[in-house]
Amino acid sequence: MAWQTPAAIFLGPPAQELLRFIKDHMNKAHPFKSHLEKLQSTLESIIPKINEVHRLNALLTYLPRPDIERLKEELVKGKELVRKCGAVPSWNYFLMCRYSKGILKLNKDLRWFFNMEVTADIWLGNKQILVDLEEMMRKFERLNMRLEGSRSAPEIPEITYGLDVPLQELKMSLFRDDVRVLGLCSPGGCGKTTLASMLCRDRDVTSRFKNIYFLTVSSSPDFKVIVQKLLEQMFPTNPVPRFLTEGEAIMKLGNLMMRIEKEPTLLVLDDVWEDSVVRKFVFGTVNYKILVTSRTQCQVFDYKYSLKMLGDEDAMALFCNSAFPQNVNVNYEEPDRDLQNKIVRGCKGLPLALKVIGHSLHQQQAKVWQHTERMLSSCSIFKSHTDLLSCLGTSLDYLNENVQDCFMDLASFPEDERIPASSLIDIWVELYGIDEVDAYINLLELSTQNLVTLIEITSGDAGQIDGNLNGLFVTQHDLLRDLAIYRSQQKGTRLIMKSREESLPWKWSKEEHQFQNARLVSIQTGELSSSNCYSMHFPEAEVLILDFFATKYTLPQFIEKMEKLKVLIIANHGHYCTQLNYLTRPGYLSSLRRVSLEKVSVPMLNEIKMPLKDLQKISLLMCEVGQALGSYDLNFPYMLPNLVEINIDYCNDLVELPQGLCNLVHLQKLSITNCHNLFAMPEGIGSIRDLEVLRLHACTGLVELPNSIKKLQKLRFLDISECLNMERLPEGMGELNGLEKLDMRQCLGLRELPPSIMNLVHLKDVICDDETADLWEPLGWHLSKLKIVMREDSNLFWLGVDL
Hints:
Number of helices: 23
CATH topology of one domain: Leucine-rich repeat, LRR (right-handed beta-alpha superhelix)
CATH superfamily of one domain: Ribonuclease Inhibitor
CATH class of one domain: Alpha Beta
CATH architecture of one domain: Alpha-Beta Horseshoe
Structural class: alpha/beta
């Protein structure tokens, strides 16, 4: 990636030379002393910024910038100007005035340039470093997106119950000289992962171990992927190697462990189900420690620490915190204490049960509490896994049926993975005939009930009308995923692989008749080929999810028979884009309404050979799209006559959009975000007459927008935030009569607004930072509806950059 030239390369030496020259000639140019002192102060203040950009230059590649060349010339001329000041006679007021203006102008130019341009260079440099990191991550973590795929220890809840003593005991066990592999064991839902995360952040632990790595293993581990995730954490800026075999991964792991044995290292393996996985991490006498969280005892453990259930006091405190949250101020009469005690005792001190069941009873009538108590008293949580799921299932019984269905759909995605909220909403809109707002409300309800956890790693606007869902993700506890699978099996309208396998389950081909009513089919495999695909028929299937780790993948043959297929989600969790092998007759695509692809090499639309007349939404994440969009003669309106939304995120090979895309006159939302090599928008963009939302967030290669944008009379929201090189807005910007919201944070290259901006009388919200707010504040008296919304970019705080 090539970026702009940092000022330090060219400006450092002449700035230092000028500073020395001023100090040497200050007394000779006495009439100009006050001006020269200001210039001296400015030069001294910019030296740290020059040094910072020097540091970044060691990491990044840059291209020349003419404005830096011009300023370099001014610095060189400044030295000559100071020399002339020392030779001006006291009577020559004309030269004194002329040279004073020259000093003041140079001082002003330096201050502006180093407050704006060099700050932008530093920000841009840090931004680019982060972008490079993200390209190697397994699953998006946007700038303050924590490094994806190579996940560090999960966040700790604000309040924990009953874990302080276990933390001290676990720490003492870890520090024992005779313990190399420490097991942290308990049934699911007891808080093992939370306790392990607390340990990783404990001051005594971080001071003892120089390196701490946290890896989630899960019930269907792929050892090659686990080693890749470890490599990402160890060397986040290096390319991740491909392992063709598990033997290669084991050899690489052994080399890694030998390299770090001189540095105290703690490796946490979370959610381990198989003893064999841990054994692969134990190498001879290599000196590092391993903490393993598991539901069962592994023979490889040197010592096992058993996490007990919560005591009565902590159990009641956790339950009450969920059932009667303190921040909710309503007139609500709590059930009698005896009933509360019975329900808490029925949860047997299991934190997950106390939390989920407690929240499900929040503000419920007495009969609901009584029913829950009867259910808990009739089964023992630890008698069997089914009994545990039945007890947890009481938290679903009083939810709206539609919300219950949405909960069960969560089982369609792999365990211990972040689920894109946009994928869930696509499914719910098509399966249940609801709009996106209601689907989002259902997601919030599941979060409120502690049945899922929402993680938002963008600007926090996902819930707004024009909000961006690209940065909103969902996670779910393994036990709750088991509950979703358990409930969905009872209903029989979903076919879901419980865990990832190399190929389709053999029994599917023998039990095809059981799947005739499945409306949702979810397949989780490795590299799928035609040899391990079965010919089955799903006549009612409307949603197909293909989730895999592979560099090559063959679409299963039964897709051809999915006449009702509306939603297709293809998610590749490998480190490189996958090549899809297609079927000879792709007629199944004709009924599709929503398509989502992740880490896929998108083929040319010409290969489909038939119009996708029902397709309304396309989402592409970290895909290779250059081939698909490289056909400039493609008839987009014929191929995609009803397309209303396009989302393209982190597609690094996107350089330009074909002009033909502008013929999609029914397109309403166009979102192109984090595509840093996109250098221009097509001139004909003004032809998309129905466009309401245009989002170009963090397209750092864009310098300007075409003036034809003024024709977008229905445009309500324009997002150009973090378009760092955007130098100007279109002259016809003021003709956007429908524009209500503009996001232009971190548009560091914008120095002025076009005069026509005064005509945006319907503009309500402009989202700014300190720099861009200065451009808008003088307009407040004229644009009566205008509200300047200040919002800092959280990515800068993650980077530790103080601008």
